[in-house]
Structures are given as C-alpha cells and as structure tokens.
TrEMBL record:
This is Spermidine synthase. Keywords: Polyamine biosynthesis. Transmembrane segments: none annotated. It comes from the Bacteria. SUPFAM superfamilies: S-adenosyl-L-methionine-dependent methyltransferases (SSF53335). It comes from Streptomyces mutomycini. InterPro entries: SAM-dependent_MTases_sf.
Length: 281
C-alpha cells in the first residue's frame, strides 16, 4: 500500500497544502499559506484535533436534544471538519456550507470527499452574500470560522453582519464564531459589542492564558436570543486536555467595557497574528 503524499495546489486564496498525518491513517492537515485551517480524520470524523474546534464541537453537542438532527449553517468550510462531525454525531442533520475559495472546495472534494448521504451541501460563494440570501429562521446553529489566510475578513466583523446572522437563526438558535486576538482585545471586544446589539445572551470560550493577555489565541463567541446552557458547557471545556474558561454574565460585561458596535463603513479585518502564532514550520 502506497504511503499518502502531500498535495499542494494554488487556490483562489493562496497556496493550499494537504499534509498526511504519519500517526493516523487517512488523517490530513489542511494549511493555506502556512496557516493551519483544518484537520480531518476520514475514518474517525468525531476526532477533533484543534483545541478551538473541540470547543465548537462542545457547542454542537449541547445544541438541541442530544443526538437529534439539526439544521446547521457553516460560514467557512476548510476541509469540512465540523460538517463531518455533525453528520457523524447527529445523523439526518441538514447542513449548508458557504466557502468563498472555490479552488479549495474542489481540492477538498477531490481528495477528502464527504461520505455518501452526509446531508452537507457546499456552496462556493462568499459567506455574507450567502447568508443574506438564506431563508429567515432556517437554522438551529450557525458556525462562523472564516479566515482569509489568518484574518477574519472585514465584511464579517460588523453589526450589520451580526444582524444577518441573527435573521437566519430560529428563535432559540445559537451563533458560534471562532476568532483570534490578544490583549488589550480591541477586536474581540468590538465583536462582542456587535453581538450584544443583536442577541440577548452572550458567552465566550478561551484558554485562561489568552484571557489573561499572555498570548495571542483563539476565542469562541456564542450568542443567542434564548438562554444559553452555560453550566454543562463550562464543565466540558474545563475537562479538555487544554482547559478553557467560559465567560458569561457580569465577567463578560466587564470584558466588553465601553466597546461600541462596528458598522460596515468602519469594519476592519481581525488582527494579523504574530509570527509563529499559528504557522507551520
């Protein structure tokens, strides 16, 4: 049997690489311009390698009734790690993925195909453009993990974007977004302020070292118009190999402070990561 070899291809947004994991059969790391984007184990889609993706997995696990199918929208596709996870853990779910890099969509479809009957439809289109045309109240869960290279595009960082996301969610639906920042958290605080303008309930999941300002890192933002089930989520995140805290209520209000919502005409992309923060050597 031949050993898998790396696949390198120029796509719409940069140089994509699919790198086989020598320790796991049929497992692959996707990078774009050196920044890790996705990790997929084709034989074990329930395996979530990246810490922040495991946190998003906890959000998936706590959405709706355990194991029941969900209607899920994914903004940003990468190698479709979370759509595969939802399909495996919640059979019968209906999922839409908006991924702007059509070359990447073709690469993943060719080398890491979805299993038959996965219930996942991939759209090669801009995330916000697709969101604004989607049916109102059509999703139980909306997961945003959109990076142009290593930065969230500016048109996905405004309060108008947050309103578009809320429109697509059902009354008890949950919005979950991955972003990255470091102290003094100007970008993170502005994104929380955007969500606070639109949703009634907010929470944030991040490692203590990131929250204390010791390093640049990922944070998962949660928002809903219905109460969030914080206690079990806190327990799950604390039990991970790299434990994370869940900020909610008064502690999150203190973090937001005096930050104001950001309008489309003043929105900017997320901060550039420091050298080596997420890169593959």
């Amino acid at each position: 049997m031949n050993e898998p070899i790396p696949v390198i291809r120029e796509t719409d947004c940069g140089t994509a690489r699919l790198l086989p994991d020598v320790d796991r059969d049929r497992a692959w790391l996707l990078t774009v311009d050196g920044a890790p984007q996705s990790y997929v184990d084709l034989d074990e889609p329930e395996h979530l390698e990246f810490e922040y993706v495991r946190r998003l997995g906890h959000v998936v696990d706590r959405a709706g009734a355990p194991g029941a199918p969900l209607d899920v929208v994914h903004l940003g596709g990468g190698a479709l790690t979370l759509p595969r996870y939802v399909a495996a853990t919640r059979p019968g779910s209906r999922q839409d993925v908006a991924e702007a890099d059509r070359g990447l969509v073709e690469l993943v479809g060719e080398h890491l195909p979805l299993p038959a009957g996965a219930g996942v439809t991939v759209h090669g289109t801009d995330a916000r453009g697709w969101l604004e045309k989607a049916a109102e109240g059509s999703a139980d869960l909306l997961i945003a993990d959109v990076f142009g290279g290593a930065r969230v595009p500016a048109h996905l960082t405004s309060v108008e974007y947050a309103r578009a996301a809320a429109r697509v969610l059902r009354a008890d639906g949950v919005y979950a977004a991955n972003l990255a920042d470091s102290a003094p958290f100007a970008f993170l605080r502005s994104q929380l302020a955007n969500l606070a303008e639109v949703f009634d309930e907010l929470a944030l999941i991040a490692e203590p070292a990131v929250l204390r300002g010791r390093r640049f890192g990922n944070a998962v933002l949660l928002a809903s118009r219905a109460p969030l089930d914080i206690t079990p989520l806190t327990r799950l995140c604390a039990a991970d190999a790299f434990p994370a805290r869940v900020e909610h209520g008064a502690s999150l209000a203190r973090l937001i402070g005096g930050a104001k919502p950001v309008r489309d005409n003043e929105a900017v992309a997320s901060p550039e990561p420091p050298d080596g923060a997420f890169g593959i050597g």
